[in-house]
Amino acid sequence: MSKEKQITAVKGMNDILPQESARWEWLEDVVRKVMARSAYRNIRTPIMEHTQLFTRGLGEVTDIVEKEMYSFQDRADKNGDAEHLTLRPESTAGVVRAVSEHNMLYEGGKRLYYMGPMFRRERPQRGRYRQFHQIGAEALGFGGPEVDAELILLAAQLWDALGIKNWRLELNSLGQPDERREHRAALIAYFESHADQLDEDARRRLHANPLRILDTKNPAMQSLVEGAPRLMDYLGEASQKHLEAVQAILKANGIDYSINPRLVRGLDYYNLTVFEFITEKLGSQGTICGGGRYDYLIQEIGGKAAPAVGWALGVERVLELLKEEGVQTPEPAPDAYAIIPDVSAVPAAMRCLYALRSEGVAVQMHAGTGEGMGSMKSQFKKADASGARYALIFGADELAAGELTVKALRDGAGEQQRQSLTEVSKWATALK
């Protein structure tokens, strides 16, 4: 019989193995603490949504919708109807859909955060995968510039909590729809006058969504884009004051930033403030967090109009940046490792371990193969390799006396004492 070809993971969709997963858990724990301090609450939305949510919400003439979404037609129901579904390429649209569908803004604004996988069919490279993960924060129902600033400060506090120092902040304003319409007309006229310099994507988007041309990654078009009309020059007084108010709060908090008039972000739902946190340590994948205000998205997907602002960070990129900056994340280790010299000791040992775990002590039990448990020497080597601070020895002499031996493996290495098997609660705390 021929050997079947080994099945491997889908290209661009990676396994996160236990040693690496520990770093993810640490990052997620830090995020939860930072979010809680600013009263942001967790929301979890489906990985799959109706395709229309993204085509209407993100904009049909965007790279995500045109080129990157994993979309398909579901199986037909008994009436012959089949839904068009998409694996979420980002989470803001889903959060907005959930908030609108469940009337969450009925009693006032909501501060929410999420974590989870997203899906885009891109060329896999460092920090950019087909299944990638985002953490995001959204404040819905709040229209003031102070909430824009709060979200930016929330991200800055997260960098502090993670120990990330190599970042810079860029700001821009995309104004309001009427200001963008005036700017749009100027952009079309400008690019039409330089039609011979436009690439295929730019020519296709010229009349459908010329703002997207400013987000081109084509090096040959950078000088042309630099000379294009700036949206900043078309902002009305209210939009200018909104941006100035955001800047004033950032300055008051000692947050450095720069104005980038070409910053447009990759999605169509933004208005007024947009921002990105960028690092120089990850090359072309330097944007680690981005977001802005999206006051018209809820109405765009069929809900009652309400202002909103938010951001999302790329988990893989942040973890890469932590490595680049030399930030050490905690290595998981049990409090104790149970050494069991003989298989006959297993029932008594496991009864004791059950009690210890109930007291909050993390204990790794040595497990043998077949009838043997392995030599004491090999068990102690595994105990040391586990990172445990203590070894719990269930020897025959100890068990005959209704006891076990607790031996220090780290601080005070070699020190040991007997403890009662039946009075675990009296000494368990010392192991934690």
From TrEMBL:
Gene3D superfamilies: Anticodon-binding domain (3.40.50.800), Bira Bifunctional Protein, Domain 2 (3.30.930.10). It is found in: Cytoplasm. One of its GO terms (molecular function) is histidine-tRNA ligase activity. The keyword DNA-binding does not apply. It holds the Pfam family HGTP_anticodon. Its EC number is 6.1.1.21. Residues 1-341 form the Aminoacyl-transfer RNA synthetases class-II family profile domain. Its main location: cytoplasm. Keywords: Aminoacyl-tRNA synthetase, ATP-binding, Cytoplasm, Ligase, Nucleotide-binding, Protein biosynthesis. It catalyses: tRNA(His) + L-histidine + ATP = L-histidyl-tRNA(His) + AMP + diphosphate + H(+). CDD domains: HisRS-like_core. Homodimer. Belongs to the class-II aminoacyl-tRNA synthetase family. This is Histidine--tRNA ligase. It comes from Ottowia thiooxydans. The lineage of its organism: Bacteria, Pseudomonadati, Pseudomonadota, Betaproteobacteria, Burkholderiales. The gene is hisS.
